[in-house]
Amino acid sequence: MSANWGNNIELSIFGESHGPAIGIVIGGLPAGMKLDMDEIRWFMKRRAPGQNQMSTPRKEKDEFQIVSGIRDGVTTGAPLCAMIENTNTHSKDYSELKVNMRPGHSDYPAYIKYHGYNDVRGGGHFSGRLTAPIVLAGSIARQILLEKGIIIGAHMKQIHHIQDCSFPVDIDDELLKQLSHQMYPTLDDQVFIKMQEEIEKARMSQDSVGGIIECAIAHVPAGIGNPFFDSVESHLSPLLFSIPAVKSVSFGSESIHQMYGHEANDAYYYQGDQVKTKTNHNGGITGGITNGMPIVFQVGIKPTPSISQIQETINVQTHTNTQIQVKGRHDPCIVPRAVVVVESMAALGVLDLLG
Amino acid sequence: MSANWGNNIELSIFGESHGPAIGIVIGGLPAGMKLDMDEIRWFMKRRAPGQNQMSTPRKEKDEFQIVSGIRDGVTTGAPLCAMIENTNTHSKDYSELKVNMRPGHSDYPAYIKYHGYNDVRGGGHFSGRLTAPIVLAGSIARQILLEKGIIIGAHMKQIHHIQDCSFPVDIDDELLKQLSHQMYPTLDDQVFIKMQEEIEKARMSQDSVGGIIECAIAHVPAGIGNPFFDSVESHLSPLLFSIPAVKSVSFGSESIHQMYGHEANDAYYYQGDQVKTKTNHNGGITGGITNGMPIVFQVGIKPTPSISQIQETINVQTHTNTQIQVKGRHDPCIVPRAVVVVESMAALGVLDLLG
Amino acid sequence: MSANWGNNIELSIFGESHGPAIGIVIGGLPAGMKLDMDEIRWFMKRRAPGQNQMSTPRKEKDEFQIVSGIRDGVTTGAPLCAMIENTNTHSKDYSELKVNMRPGHSDYPAYIKYHGYNDVRGGGHFSGRLTAPIVLAGSIARQILLEKGIIIGAHMKQIHHIQDCSFPVDIDDELLKQLSHQMYPTLDDQVFIKMQEEIEKARMSQDSVGGIIECAIAHVPAGIGNPFFDSVESHLSPLLFSIPAVKSVSFGSESIHQMYGHEANDAYYYQGDQVKTKTNHNGGITGGITNGMPIVFQVGIKPTPSISQIQETINVQTHTNTQIQVKGRHDPCIVPRAVVVVESMAALGVLDLLG
Amino acid sequence: MSANWGNNIELSIFGESHGPAIGIVIGGLPAGMKLDMDEIRWFMKRRAPGQNQMSTPRKEKDEFQIVSGIRDGVTTGAPLCAMIENTNTHSKDYSELKVNMRPGHSDYPAYIKYHGYNDVRGGGHFSGRLTAPIVLAGSIARQILLEKGIIIGAHMKQIHHIQDCSFPVDIDDELLKQLSHQMYPTLDDQVFIKMQEEIEKARMSQDSVGGIIECAIAHVPAGIGNPFFDSVESHLSPLLFSIPAVKSVSFGSESIHQMYGHEANDAYYYQGDQVKTKTNHNGGITGGITNGMPIVFQVGIKPTPSISQIQETINVQTHTNTQIQVKGRHDPCIVPRAVVVVESMAALGVLDLLG
């Protein structure tokens, strides 16, 4: 099913972009955990729109209310429901979008699936805005993981053709913390300027660009995961593919399929009592199970489908070919805002795997 | 959980490489379906080892017995259990493998997870041999799908650095049928010779290579799938990542994250009454739901971790660094045999999605 | 997991008795369904407290807000979230309840499970109040079922030792509709007066009584359900046991285990083209699958654990035996209010089974 | 789905009464557990048919082969598949059963569901014989539970109208062990003679009788289970209703719905450091969560539907009313053989709940 996820941590999301509110129910949280609300707000701010010209001008403060599951800021063990009101919705005319299908969007598949009854305003339930409650849930998951010593961080590995470096084999905890407290995290400080130029260029051409986000999860103990249907890769990938615009997921080195076996096989060694590998081309997972090295993965994000250029499309009412020009507020590149969403999904996936 | 999968079609796999047998239980099959045993055997032959020097010399005919769920070759609607006996097991000494962890393999994670009790002979339950019952189940799924007009085919898109072409936008049904009846399917007839040379080169160097398999699923109707947690991508990816050695999955064009929005947005048009797109960079899926175009995806496969070269590793008994030389029968490249496994997982995933 | 349920219909409940609100997320609803809000309100009124002296004096209008999943009163196909604010909460002192465990309540098990962090005010997440959103969801399910011709009704079969008649073999549709529009449905008009006296007697003694609710689901087609783990009984029973205070569930005739085989075997016959049975001791289900006769089942409800008498118990802080007198507003018998909850669970269970 | 069950322990059953074999796949078992094969055989013997005139004369030794998941008698952590060959199948003529539906059996619902393709020989997949692999799985579960101190035992509480006593509040471990090592366990030694007479009387009249089995699970710690959808009752009941012929399940005292609140509320007290209740009318569960007292429940079993008397029924081929006389080997009462099945389901359910 589509709105629910999880075995040990249960997620249920709801809401439409222009409805009264969006939100999430999170079951399976431990009781007695003091939530760090400031940190939740910080992670949500990283995702929030309207902070600069690289993102949609729609301003949403994404202020949330926790409706259940906490008392005096401490979890009770009951399902936690958090809601975010939709305050900045434009009540413009959406009648064109009901019949002219935007290319690259959910419009046409949703029109068929829901027989035209889906809410198309602002993308409805398909809106990237639904990732706000995911980040909220992910922020809570990260706090639980941190108590187990598990740290998560990600960076923009690529925007259009501009590339950042990859994570090194040994990933410093401080680096991950630092990345997760940046609005535009890159490993190479200089590369973001070029990325910004690339995004601006796309924006000026009424176009958009995509990219790659690389994420690392450090200190997951060895022996977590399963062979086959619930391998770590199998467990995390559906969450990552749930993020709108994600079209690819790879674990370890992106180029591992082009390596020779003697390169791809990460050699084990003891560093004191600790088992490590000299390289980490397998991204901390072999046979579907963690080996104790950082879990590393990349997600590929397509360019935002909302662009202002005139595009060829169909009118499903008249059954004719036509053109569409999508107006409104769009991100020329959602990669920067998606970094914290990827981290959040990673946190939720690992927390669920830990059982 | 790891051994079970599915909502509408239920899979449960079992067995170890050197145990008495491996097998699968398939629940949720429709009653009254006449199974085409020859086709099942053909698909299993495509995966079976020992057919030439590109694959492990271990010969297993992979003859299966259907223990339940059919009568007179017709499904009864009860769970179908199929078993494959392990006939060609070498009772060699596996004591070294219990302590010296093979790099790139499941050995070390499994050692930690199962406290050393896992069966290491031939990879035990982690063996690629467990994909034989998957192919059997997938072959049945394909027969059900074919009655709905859905056709699946795949080709070796890349081996090491040797590349085949990509699927065209319009994929001919005959092409898919033809591909799925080849032992070494490529779109470009000439490219396999080079791939073969590459594999042979690796074999001669006691090394191995990986590659990419591209798969297409044609004629899935528009409107199948869901937003978020059960998007088509989210539904198929765990199955694909269950295949041993798969480290990446991408839907649509592999380079979509490097495109501009105006390129990535597949323009809709009516061809008669039928809705089509001029390009298919989104691989038949937008917003997590099918748009009626072929579902196209790629899986990246790492080089076989079993290589005969001496490798650095650890001894978990003595807690010391050591070396290992993995003897025995290995595939220098499992990509050719994995093609039908990818097709099978695709079939099972789509059948389950159709509900 | 505890907060989520369902394969085709997805439920996720949240909220605590004295928190800001309670609610539910319902996934998997068909798009394009016009909701009959008056009927939803009627069903919720049947469950609402404070309507007479048989129920707790706490008055809650149970007014709900639909936060997502509908537009202009029509379902969009996206998850529907409905919320009910908690308006009438008494901010009395709950410190005694944190340490003195009420017998028959969730207090002690919850104290152990949640390490004392659970919200004890008004029963917290364990409150019977959480059945309000269940009734809301069930009301929607009933509207969908009604379009398929399926009708649900229930009656108070027993309160304490006062018994109503059982459903006849042929259950008239009008009877079920009529029952579901009564506040105190019984088959025998006279019996409710005696039941009322029994409840009043318990109330005057600061005591409580329980009883049995019998429910019928008419016109479920034959062939629905499965052998073994997803039998109709297996599918419905967890929902019914989710209702606070339900301690038993039986399908068909309550006394079937005391019959002889020749009595218990419901004889088939053709009535025109329609297959019927002369008796319905199996409650419309044999082999876990429906046979086309009405599904009939009973749920046994224990007396409300909240009574004002002094009771023996423990203090978990001082680790000593002690006494407790539970003050506050209680139902001397929740059976009348639980009828619509049972019907709602039945509706949700059958809708999910129909797939 | 019907063939699979479980969150932490995964079950998948397969097989038909007259097919080559029946079996089960059990996932999620811990690695490194030495299986006590003698005990497994003992429990299976308790269920096996043909041991005396109270059960069907079909003799099946129910010898099993473990196909995967163990090595040298010790679990490997991989899915355990166990198979039981069907050796004693009568190849008699089943053509009448294909068209004349046996009352009280799965025949008619299955005929509709599977469009006549289901295997009707010996009940096919619906056969009570499928409980043999359940007992095997349950026996393994019991060994795991025993290491945690959890002990399970059951007795025949009622056969037709002959009643045994109920479990006392304090249930001695020795009593449970003793019960589970009897073929015909009752609390009152004398009562079985009367039960036997009752069964014999039914057999002589070509009839059958049912009854009630009461089961206790001692030493499950307090705090296990959940509110609502995954209450202990909700978790166990689907397993119990999966047992063919079970039509009712009640937890705690069967008569709790007829008690007053002051009786039904089990008073807590400290016995030393241990929390106990003076009565156990709630069967060790309040609010869906264990309170540390023994979990006690009853299952009601209908009389065996297979009786040799002439019965009224329908012919689904000719669409006419007709009569049927069911020949063959039947149990006049399956209660004695079902005791160990109930214990097994209880063991599997609790093991899964413990996570």
UniProtKB/TrEMBL annotation, chains A, B, C, D:
One of its GO terms (cellular component) is cytosol. This reaction introduces a second double bond into the aromatic ring system. Pathway: Metabolic intermediate biosynthesis; chorismate biosynthesis; chorismate from D-erythrose 4-phosphate and phosphoenolpyruvate: step 7/7. This is Chorismate synthase. FMN binds at H125, F126, S127, G287, K302, P303, T304, P305, S306, R329. It catalyses: 5-O-(1-carboxyvinyl)-3-phosphoshikimate = chorismate + phosphate. One of its GO terms (molecular function) is FMN binding. HAMAP family: Chorismate_synth (MF_00300). It is an enzyme of class 4 (lyase). InterPro entries: Chorismate_synth, Chorismate_synth_AroC_sf, Chorismate_synthase_CS. It holds the Pfam family Chorismate_synt.
